[in-house]
Write a structure and sequence with these properties.
Helix content is 86%, strand content 0%. The two termini are 33 Å apart. The chain is mainly α and 201 residues long. It is built from seven helices and no strands. It is globular.
Length: 201
C-alpha cells in the first residue's frame, strides 16, 4: 500500500500535540524526581503502549476505541489531579518562603519509584491517544503511513526539547509552574475524552 501524506499529517498533528503535553510533564518530573527516573519511566510507558498497539490492531477496532476512551479519560484526569495538587503545593510553599530555590540537586537524583511511576503514567496516558489515531489511520491507509506521521512528530518534539533544554530556560522556571501548565493541558484533554467515552457508550 502506498503512503498517504494526508494520513501521515493526521497522525503527525496528534502525535505532536500529545507528545508536547507529555514533554511538559516529563520536564516537570525531571526537575522533581531526576532525569534518570523520568527517562526509564518513559521507556517503560512507551513499551507498554507499543505492545498494546500490536494487540489491539489484531482485535476489533470499534470495541477497542470505546474502551480506550474510558481508560484515557481516567488516566488523564487522574494525572491532571496529581499535577494540580503539585501546583497548589508549590504555590503554598512559595508563599510560605519554603519553596526550593534550585532544582539542580533533584535533576541528578538516582532512579526512584516515584519518578518511574509518574513518567510511565504520563507516557501511557498520552500514548493511548496517539494509539487511537494510529489505529484508525493504519486500518484505512496502512501501518506505514500511520507510523510515518508518528515518527515525524517524535523527531520534531525531541528536537525542540533538546534545543530548548540546551538554552537552560527550563532551569529558570520553578517546577510548580511547569506542573500548573501541564495540569491545565492534561485535565482539558481528560475532560474531552471523558465526553467522548460517555457519548459513545
Amino acid at each position: 500500500m502506498t503512503l498517504s501524506w494526508l494520513g501521515a499529517v493526521i497522525t503527525f498533528q496528534v502525535t505532536f500535540t500529545e507528545l508536547f503535553i507529555a514533554a511538559t510533564v516529563m520536564m516537570a518530573g525531571a526537575y522533581r524526581f531526576g532525569w534518570r527516573s523520568v527517562l526509564a519511566g518513559s521507556i517503560l510507558g512507551g513499551l507498554a503502549v507499543s505492545i498494546l498497539a500490536v494487540v489491539l490492531r489484531k482485535a476489533a477496532y470499534l470495541l477497542a476505541l470505546n474502551v480506550l476512551d474510558w481508560i484515557s479519560a481516567v488516566l488523564l484526569l487522574g494525572f491532571g489531579l496529581y499535577l494540580v495538587y503539585e501546583f497548589i503545593d508549590g504555590l503554598s510553599k512559595r508563599d510560605a518562603g519554603t519553596a526550593p530555590g534550585s532544582t539542580d540537586a533533584n535533576w541528578s537524583r538516582p532512579i526512584n519509584a516515584a519518578g518511574l511511576g509518574v513518567a510511565a503514567w504520563a507516557l501511557v496516558a498520552e500514548g493511548l491517544e496517539i494509539l487511537v489515531v494510529w489505529l484508525g489511520v493504519s486500518l484505512r491507509e496502512g501501518a506505514g503511513t500511520a507510523t510515518l506521521g508518528v515518527g515525524i512528530g517524535v523527531v520534531l518534539v525531541a528536537t525542540l526539547a533538546f534545543a530548548l533544554g540546551g538554552t537552560g530556560i527550563f532551569r529558570k522556571v520553578p517546577p510548580y509552574v511547569l506542573d500548573g501548565v501541564a495540569a491545565l493541558m492534561v485535565t482539558a484533554y481528560g475532560a474531552y475524552f471523558l465526553s467522548l467515552a460517555v457519548t459513545r457508550a
